[in-house]
Design goal:
binds coenzyme A; alpha+beta; single chain; 346 residues; 33% strand; 9 helices; 12-stranded mixed beta sheet; globular
């Protein structure tokens, strides 16, 4: 089977259709659910932001004489405001085409030249291994690929998936558990964009999350989430057809004590949603705010995203507090994810 690698052409409808079909196959394989983005929404996702630039390649296999299928993809992201030494790389191959050297070819023909051209020295990637796989086994395909790229494991994350819909009785009992310790704190729900008057305070929560999230030996500089940066993120999500369900915990003095966000794609054919950042500020921990925040957002799902069948989230394996909350809600381990970094001589 002949495989050729070339840059993705975002102006080509055929490239985008095949890219979306690959994404659906990967998501169904990995999470048991997927998102139904339109071509225009995918195009919007691919436009560079003010904070990073990206490049994408595709692997085309000649599966039958004269007929090509898009069976793999690779990408790089270069942060532009912070992490100025870093370049983030990714490669994924359709499950039916794995073990035939396609990822290796994408790494050699696309990623390694792009890393060299970028002048960036710290290379970062994420790789999936089975839930019971040995993270340090040199036989894991991800580790073999990582060795080729000159990077190695710096943290281990666990991906969990929550089957939907949720029983409201479960949410009622978890809410009662949270209320025992919540005291004078209250939870506020926002649908849509962050209210203008809260942008700066919300940006501080976002930055704190990146400072506090346990990530073992990963080198990462937390960005400043300025109001402009938050608004650009919201605009980009809207252009991709995503909606946010956000909750904040408000302390007795009116300051923000924590937050959580769920992002859902609004097509009735999208079955996959994303549980994003959850944080309780250090001085406000111990009041079950993490649980109360998540119960509040998860309750919204039945009305606002009834199409969803699965919500996916990642936690570092050294984050027992967040994991306990997720397990209570019914999230179950799907696979483990290696965070790989290194300064290779390529
Ligand atoms: C990891 C992934 C990209 C590999 O794609 P692939 O096309 O199967 O990879 P290759 O065929 O080029 O194989 C890479 C290495 O793994 C080995 N390998 C692949 N599949 C294997 C299998 N089933 N059993 C044993 N070894 C295997 C290959 O022999 C090769 O080893 P080598 O470097 O010593 O020659 C693919 O499994 C995938 O898409 N996973 C999900 C996303 C992910 O984790 N990406 C990794 C980013 S670093």
């Amino acid at each position: 089977m002949h495989v050729s690698i070339r840059p993705l052409d975002p102006s080509s409808d055929l490239d985008l259709e095949q890219y979306l079909a690959l994404e659906t196959a990967l998501d169904e394989h990995t999470y048991g659910a997927s998102q139904a983005l339109t071509r225009e929404q995918l195009r919007a996702q691919m436009v560079d932001s003010s904070y990073w630039r990206g490049q994408r390649w595709i692997a085309l296999a000649e599966t039958l004489e004269g007929g090509e299928s898009l069976v793999g993809r690779a990408s790089v992201f270069v942060p532009l405001r912070e992490n100025l030494e870093s370049i983030s790389v990714g490669v994924e191959v359709h499950p039916a085409f794995r073990g035939r050297g396609i990822a290796t070819q994408l790494a050699e023909e696309a990623l390694i030249p792009a890393i060299r051209d970028s002048g960036r020295t710290l290379v970062e990637a994420y790789g999936e291994i089975p839930a019971d796989g040995d993270a340090d086994s040199p036989d894991e395909p991800v580790n073999r690929l990582a060795r080729r790229l000159g990077i190695s494991r710096k943290n281990l994350a666990v991906c969990r998936v929550l089957p939907l819909p949720l029983e409201s009785s479960l949410l009622d009992s978890l809410q009662a558990e949270a209320e025992e310790r919540i005291g004078q704190y209250r939870i506020e729900l926002w649908d849509g964009d962050i209210p203008e008057q809260h942008l700066e305070a919300y940006g501080r929560l976002m930055r704190q999350l990146e400072l506090d999230e346990p990530d073992e030996e990963v080198e990462h500089e937390a960005p400043e989430y300025t109001p402009e940066r938050i608004r650009e993120g919201e605009r980009r999500r809207r252009e991709q057809g995503l909606e946010s369900i956000t909750a904040v915990a408000v302390a007795p003095d009116g300051s923000f004590a924590g937050n959580t966000e769920i992002h859902v794609h609004r097509s009735p054919h999208s079955t996959l949603g994303w549980q994003e950042n959850t944080l309780v500020m250090p001085e406000h921990r111990g009041h079950r705010l993490g649980l109360a925040l998540k119960v509040a957002t998860h309750r919204q799902l039945t009305a606002r995203a009834p199409q969803l069948r699965a919500l996916v989230t990642w936690n570092s394996h050294v984050n027992p507090w967040m994991i306990e909350i997720n397990e209570k809600l019914g999230y179950r381990v799907r696979f483990r994810e290696l965070v790989l970094q290194g300064r290779p001589e390529l």
